[in-house]
Amino acid sequence: xxxxxxxxxxxxxxxxxxxxxxxxxxxxxxxxxxxxxxxxxxxxxxxxxxxxxxxxxxxxxxxxxxxxxxxxxxxxxxxxxxxxxxxxxxxxxxxxxxxxxxxxxxxxxxxxxxxxxxxxxxxxxxxxxxxxxxxxxxxxxxxxxxxxxxxxxxxxxxxxxxxxxxxxxxxxxxxxxxxxxxxxxxxxxxxxxxxxxxxxxxxxxxxxxxxxxxxxxxxxxxxxxxxxxxxxxxxxxxxxxxxxxxxxxxxxxxxxxxxxxxxxxxxxxxxxxxxxxxxxxxxxxxxxxxxxxxxxxxxxxxxxxxxxxxxxxxxxxxxxxxxxxxxxxxxxxxxxxxxxxxxxxxxxxxxxxxxxxxxxxxxxxxxxxxxxxxxxxxxxxxxxxxxxxxxxxxxxxxxxxxxxxxxxxxxxxxxxxxxxxxxxxxxxxxxxxxxxxxxxxxxxxxxxxxxxxxxxxxxxxxxxxxxxxxxxxxxxxxxxxxxxxxxxxxxxxxxxxxxxxxxxxxxxxxxxxxxxxxxxxxxxxxxxxxxxxxxxxxxxxxxxxxxxxxxxxxxxxxxxxxxxxxxxxxxxxxxxxxxxxxxxxxxxxxxxxxxxxxxxxxxxxxxxxxxxxxxxxxxxxxxxxxxxxxxxxxxxxxxxxxxxxxxxxxxxxxxxxxxxxxxxxxxxxxxxxxxxxxxxxxxxxxxxxxxxxxxxxxxxxxxxxxxxxxxxxxxxxxxxxxxxxxxxxxxxxxxxxxxxxxxxxxxxxxxxxxxxxxxxxxxxxxxxxxxxxxxxxxxxxxxxxxxxxxxxxxxxxxxxxxxxxxxxxxxxxxxxxxxxxxxxxxxxxxxxxxxxxxxxxxxxxxxxxxxxxxxxxxxxxxxxxxxxxxxxxxxxxxxxxxxxxxxxxxxxxxxxxxxxxxxxxxxxxxxxxxxxxxxxxxxxxxxxxxxxxxxxxxxxxxxxxxxxxxxxxxxxxxxxxxxxxxxxxxxxxxxxxxxxxxxxxxxxxxxxxxxxxxxxxxxxxxxxxxxxxxxxxxxxxxxxxxxxxxxxxxxxxxxxxxxxxxxxxxxxxxxxxxxxxxxxxxxxxxxx
Length: 1072
Description:
Strand order of the largest sheet: 14-13-10-11-12-15-16
Number of strands: 38
Radius of gyration: 28 Å
Helix content: 25-40%
Mean pLDDT: 91
Number of helices: 38
């Protein structure tokens, strides 16, 4: 069936910011959808609030709106753009829920907009727990015994019928938000109430527990002619009870019998038919009882999902692209699969002759108070994927690709306790490190049946891991020079890294590498082709293996290799992938052959048509050098993927690899405290007093010389890892003993903390001769909050012209003195009209995409061209572009997933993503940024104020502004008395320790609509924790800084007074 020619324009809804449960896989799907529809001559309108995405680039759609994904904002876009259709299946749960809101408010009907890709009925049937259960019963498929509840009393009645343990699943939430497993009535009450609160329909499913059953997923595509294909089967190594996003998964499924596979295949197709998915991809999840073989349908997603991205990267089948074409009327037999050059149709079911392993990456080190037990609510922040010829090779490559300090199944830090009971407990409780404890249990002689009883991980996987442990133990007391080459080859085929082997054989990694190369034990590169080599692949999408035949076929073209950022984590996310993609696209246009190396399946950079050649490989020295030896690139870019490739820079340079752009030496100079101090003195710039320490004694001495408060942090980290503000010797001692491992190689940096300073970020491009200033960003929160967690504004909204001129001069000096060639980010603090330099990063930073969207110039693209030899003059980049409108970046924080964690921000980064608001004034832009981040500002109601003494003078103006708007003020004793003295009427409310009724009672009763709470000192922070915790639990708008409160006052005025403008029009309005 040919495409629907009545559809001339389509509105695509994106997924918004990166949050736990919804990451950059939706940038990947959105980009594919935009490209697929524009290929067909369809006018594409895109709305997304995340500036760090490729999909929000101005050339990705005909009209790009960086606006909050909220039905009121989308309605304004529909009025302006008059799309024929809306495609909601590319933006995760956010897009589905927003489309349902638009439908509920009759907006789609009013403006005659058709939903394509999925119908409202199919979304409802798949997402509404009760409708889905009834639908499965209709087609003869079993689901777990379950009941729907709309309040706690109803839930409790259902629980009594099922018993404990019991599973709670809220409707219409993403990443299992609000769900969990209850083993007792106390946990049950807590999870049910939270689930009801987070579900947009106030509905939860109370379900029998199938913990310990095997879990499988089928990725299915169906068209309107009922052509169905299974793109890929996925098996979770972890059993039921852990969210699939937090499970280690393998494709294709390894332990299904042929009969079981066919049963799941047939069931998946029946599910899609019943739900009514006939124009795209869906993911269907099953549980199988290991004892009886009973199959249950768990759930299905009527949209492109996280697993779709994994299945796409695992097979090379472009699910999102095909789904977008199906949505406009095509059928699978009319479309071609590009990975084989269009030889095979899209209706040809992919088959793969390799194994893919995905391992999630967690960030519990950022949230020490959080419970790291894994349940049905997703908690991981990223993932790594690896491809190998067998499970063991794929599994070990994924482990070393995680970048958590391991290169296989070992982590000596975990195994200080050799107690068997301790190990049993670690195996019983699913947590991020369980797979490593499992290997340790094998080393200590646990038998496989015993481990199975504790973990319910299938015996096939246990035997594979056991074999790896036995191989590792067999190397004890062996000598590398006496090891037979057949054994070494066998170990490499099982995925053992050179670094792990060197540790077992007590020699250097270089020695293992040297012997390997001397004996021609080298990896070959195989191609991902979706057809198990039945047809020749025309795309160069490759993975390494210690097999016989190499399919790389490198060219003699002038090549540039770009090293990606690896798995997403807090501090290193989609922003760096954005930069890598732009580098590749720009250099391809310039005539270079580009090679991308990355191991993150969620990203646009790992799409096979972004670069000329894609290597899906871990970003370790061994793996990267193996590719370099085959490809022999002219140059390698290490400055765009965050800290991951930077760590490899020096070792690569030692191997005579040409690192283009800013040199590794210049990058090291910016990190080396003593050398950098000399450079600053030479330039006559100011820095907060600082020192370095390699032990507690040195730290205390330095602190006494500099004076408290101090910002302390380890060297060479990203995202403010382990960064703290300390105010006493005792705080400093505790930090040195507990927070970091300190040595001569990794000293601790101590800086005088500048209270109440304004922080500024500046992004520039330098070609070594000239400097182009991308933007000067003023932070909204005061110094002390990590730049990644602070809101910021372009242009600055309080800085004087004099200060801005000085900043321009200083940043230019720094770029030229460091001989930066490419991008550079610099952070300053302004206190008492003095400028202090905080840090310089001569590389891509997380602000580059935001700046690019704000000014209409792609910094990452221009930076890559400069690194390849172009001058700024050749690129026509001279004067700084200062927009006539305001752009505000706001951080998005994951506290909803960790309710036990204090929401108070500090110098260690905790945000998972960001949003952008654009407006004609700072207030409008800030309002939009807040709405996009999920903060619903109140128009009226009660405000609670409790501020530290030094903020009391400043809170008076804020209180008056709020009263003018119509708010009623409440405060604790100290703040209330101060306001009263300043003739501001305010009601007193008790602190928690002063007895009930108190402020937390007010929050729980829904009588507080906005909270302004600033605090300092351990006791005060501890006393006010319950206020912030309940504000988070009850979705009450909260700010913990005075500057944030001032910005809220400006933003509230725009709640009913905002506009929506596409970024192409905004960019045209500027004078370049």
